[in-house]
Amino acid sequence: STKNDAFPQFRPPAKHLSITAKMSTSNTHIRSILAEQLPRGLSKLPAKSVRPSPNLPHAPRRSISSLSPQEKRLAIKNALRYFPKEWHEELGQEFMQELKMYGHVYCYRFRPVEYEMKAYALDNYPGHSLRARSIMLMIMNNLDPEVAQFPEELITYGGNGSVFSNWAQYRLVMMYLSTMRDDQTLVMYSGHPLGLFPSQEDSPVCIITNGLMVPEFSTLQDYTKGYALGVTQYGQMTAGSYAYISSQGIVHGTTITVKNAFRKYLQLEDPCGKVFVTSGLGGMSGAQAKMDQLVGCITLVAEIFLPAIEKRKAQGWVKEIISDLDQLVERIRELRRKKEGSSIAYHGNIVDLWERLAKEDEMIVDLGSDQTSCHITYSGGYYPVGYTYEESNRIMVDDPKRFHQIVDESLKRQMAAIQTLSARGMPFFDYGNNFLNSCACAGAPIRNKDPKVQRDFIYPSYVQDIMGDVFSLGFGPFRWVCTSGLAEDLRKTDALSARVIENLMKHASPEAKQQLADNYDWIKKAEENKLVVGSQSRILYSDTVGRMEIALAFNKAIRDGELSGPVVLSRDHHDVSGTDSPFRETSNIYDGSYATADMSTHTAIGNAQRGTSWVALHNGGGTGWGRAINGGFGLLLDGEEKTDEVIKSQLFWDVSNGLARRQWAYHPYARQVVQDLMQREKRFSVTLSHEADEKFLDSLEFGE
């Protein structure tokens, strides 16, 4: 049935049955529309084709020059298999045009126009499973035009971080989620809904994989072909796991990273008047503009795409837009003299900016990094110097070989300017976006040749130098979404989490206390900093015990009627246990296992075993296809007492698995935290490493 009254509203488990009345964002009109439309799936052919909106940003045209005629034929055949044969003649011609014009079959005709794409309050969604309904909320948030980078191409962030490969998949997934029950599991193969399978009520209602490949076939060329054929996709991290919360997540991560970078490199707690130079104002990198308001430094971000700058300016994240380099340099000098902070967007190419700064007699840069999407360096992630945005997009498709060459030259010029400044004392770190690797592959002489320095390049990854210690303490990006859609509920969860952090600080180690203090300051100022875009969501860095205590406090508040509806817990895949990547999350693993993927794989399997609501495992992430395996989860808190047990089991595992691995790789912080956790949880017993004495090892003969 698709009738509105066929799907029950949320009811709290205890005596507070009036809680639903407080969910004022439940809308009878939209509830009726969603109840009619979402279970419909692909049962009706839309009357006419829906073309891409001219008012929204769109993904760059993708090159299909490497596809043979037979492979192009297969791409159309694969797209048509979602639909009844009587539709094929009409749709086949349409899909062929999409493939030629955009390099991919997005099935634009099936993009829903009956309702606005956004996260509605949970009670607006039809369905028999509360957990499945929460997934629909999260999916629609990922595709909200206010949230997503290229919403009509189903790309949330990172240039190619896809929720689905086409709109037919979206419609089928929403049909399955709105009709399934808790004893079924929806299986997702890289955007494709394989179907519903019988399961148990305490098992995940959705299992997601994105881009998992046999290792020999995990190259960028294989991704390009597979995506064009519609058989795989790049899920990034929280795009394909339905857990993105707009730029708030990366705002927090960037704030923590840059704050700790100023501490480490410049011994500064207050970096007012200090200049941080970087690039990118897209779906993830856009957070850099907001960060200055939280750290206090002068943030200078180069961005070639003007609409991205204007979006961040409208949000209040970018304070100033400057396109003239002379004017920009004078403005930097002025802010440095006054010791004021600001976020300045330079509308232009990052290479021009770095080269100008390198020519200045006065050293006016204090810290540098980069957040261009270098996981897709030659597919719209990096725009070369000397060419406009439009020129680059044209060459990218019409002459890929030439585009590859001009990008490589641009990367080498950028790195040369950075090296000039670093030789004068500017610290520079890779932000885990594959930038250093891209520069090295382009021919820049930055590979490390010192065997005593345990890293691949002359500059460190930010995980190696900054965030690795944070992960080894068990801290990572823990997040939640208030499904009521009420700002008041988010305000209450902020207060609850702050209370937990206050209690934890009383007995924390000095290292952990610093992280707790940073996150306490973050959560206390979160509302006034206006971080919410899309769903009513929040992020903070927390450790094993902190995550469990916060989640238990939330679940109790739902049970007692303090919160108006369920809460979805999640985290970034970029976490203690969530990702194996030698260029980022495991770059500070020095026992030789940095490129193994056991940790992230086990984390996903273990989360599923412990009753999480949905679980995901991906190939790729911020460092690029074939360079990472990463996973995430979603856990719906519904106030039930049995959910308390899931919280304690799953969240303990989700962090401690990575801590156990990191201590085995000789990290002293992780070893101490693991030993403390073994005292707390007697069922937790870890194989501890016994590190060999370096002098003894030096006495052994290993040859040249």
How are the elements arranged and paired?
Blueprint: H1 28-37, H2 69-80, H3 88-102, H4 130-142, E1 155-157, E2 161-162, H5 167-179, E3 184-189, E4 192-198, E5 206-210, H6 220-229, H7 248-266, E6 275-279, H8 287-295, E7 298-303, H9 306-315, E8 320-322, H10 325-338, E9 342-347, H11 350-359, E10 367-368, H12 377-381, H13 389-398, H14 400-423, H15 435-442, H16 462-472, E11 476-482, H17 487-505, H18 510-525, E12 537-542, H19 544-559, E13 567-571, E14 579-580, H20 598-609, E15 614-619, E16 629-637, H21 641-664, H22 668-680, H23 694-699
Helix pairs in contact: 2-3, 7-8, 7-16, 11-14, 13-14, 14-15, 17-18, 17-19, 19-21, 20-21, 21-22
- Portion of residues in beta strands equals 5-15%
- Rg (C-alpha, Å): 25 Å
Uncertain parts: 1-7, 15-24
End-to-end separation in angstroms reads 74 Å
Strand tally, please?
16
Helical content, roughly?
40-55%
Shape: globular
Give a short account of the largest sheet.
9 strands, mixed
Q: Count of DSSP helices?
A: 23
